[in-house]
Amino acid sequence: MITIYQAGTNAVRQIVNPLANSQQEQGVMGKDIVTINCSLPFAVNFGIGDYATVFDSLYKINVPPVLQKISGRNYQYTITLEGRIGDLGKTQFLFLDADNNFTESEFPLRARLIDFADFLLANIKRRYPDDPEYPIKNWQISGVQDTDFKDLTFSRNNCLDALNYAIKEFDTEYSLDGTKIYLYKRQPASGVLLRYGAGLYGLTRQPLDNGNIVNLLYAYGSDKNIGSDYRG
After folding, report:
1. Which of 79, 84, 111, 116 is 20 to 30 A from residue 95's alpha carbon, by CA?
2. 85: region left, alpha or beta (phi > 0 left; psi from -120 to 50 alpha)
């Protein structure tokens, strides 16, 4: 049984019994998704932001579930819940303006990996501030290695895009453990050989699809007026 809670509350939305074809997909620097297929005798209005704890990790509904009504007492749902990496894809990576506010979406940045990590964390905490009552939910970045300075350029990126771009430029990798981001350099092979069917039954590495619904929109104007003949 998995308990799904209403967004931002401790109120139970629905307790579901996942069918056998439910699954979890995880990958290094990739997606972290739980797909729950279930059947209910009534319709449930699952909402964006509803959440559940699966394998001791928090997952959220970021896209509306798929619903198929079979009969008056048989509603089949496919509910996709995304791990905390999805929060990065919903947070814009912005720079400070003249008033020291995070508003600039296009900017160059000459930085070391630690400098980038500081800006990344500041942007994440701008969207998800620290909670003194539940410090385990607060975002952190750990394991940052010393690097040389790099000239980086960002243009209307979200934090996940910015992170993927930066780790490529700094030739490093990242992983997430809840709300803790680890940045680390690639290590030599361990010498351990894993064979499919001998303790390893599935391994997938896929990039995260950032095609989430828009829940926060930044609108930018222009310094030029349209021409007087625009109607023609």
Report:
1. 84
2. alpha
Can you tell me the distance from the alpha carbon of 97 to that of 44, in angstroms, rounded to the nearest whole number? Answer: 44
Distance, CA of 175 to CA of 229 (rounded, Å): 53
Give the span between the Cα atoms of 140 and 122, in whole angstroms.
10
Give the H/E segment covering residue 160. Answer: helix 159-169
Which stretches within the chain are classed as H helix?
A: 85-89, 113-127, 159-169
Residues in the chain: 232
Would you call 86 helix, strand, or coil by DSSP?
A: helix
Is the Cβ–Cβ distance between 178 and 136 less than 8 Å? yes
pLDDT score of 195: 62
**CA dist 97 to 109, 209, 221, Å?**
13, 30, 16
Residue 212: C-alpha distances to residues 64, 89, 91, 99 (Å):
10, 8, 11, 31
For the beta carbon of residue 113, count every other beta carbon within 10 angstroms: 22
Which tokens belong to 153?
């350029």
**pTM for the whole structure:** 0.68
Paired strand residues for 92 = 158
In this structure, the number of other CB atoms found within 10 A of the CB of residue 75 comes to 17
Q: Choose between 55 and 152: higher pLDDT.
A: 152
pLDDT tens, residue by residue, 126-172? 998 988 877 777 899 998 989 999 999 999 999 999 999 999 999 99
